[in-house]
Predict the structure.
Amino acid sequence: MSIATNVRTSTAAPAIVDQALIAGLGAFALYHFALAALMAVSPHAFFTSIGPFGTYNPHYIRDTATFNAALGIGFAVALRRSSWRVPVLAVTTAQFALHSLNHLLDIDRAHPVWTGYFDFFSLLAATLLLGGLLARARTGSASTPRSQGELP
């Protein structure tokens, strides 16, 4: 006597996770492009609104805008090329972790002081989010190898 079991494997959960990964990559691409644009176009607005540490230096702010633009490009490419996802997320997670540490060291030097705390905790939250996206990208890249030009 043979009993056939109808086993259905659900692809809904991995599909939702893949959609979350794509959404995260897209959100971080937009974030980095928007931040780079603000820093390049209006460094003083960036300094007074987001980065009120030390002395205002528009050249250094625009220099940093180029790093953010490069990360934005990396995230944009990673949307289409799955082989870019782990490296882009790994480098950006490391950058956010180091940036968080830097803000922790200067947490009480922002003007006003509360922005130092806000900056640190928001950077830490983003670092954790990036780490989660990195873990998902690593799992996805290990279980489903894709060619460089292939979409998810």
The CA atoms of residues 81 and 149 lie 5 Å apart. The two ends are 42 Å apart (CA to CA). The chain is about 75% helix and 0% strand.
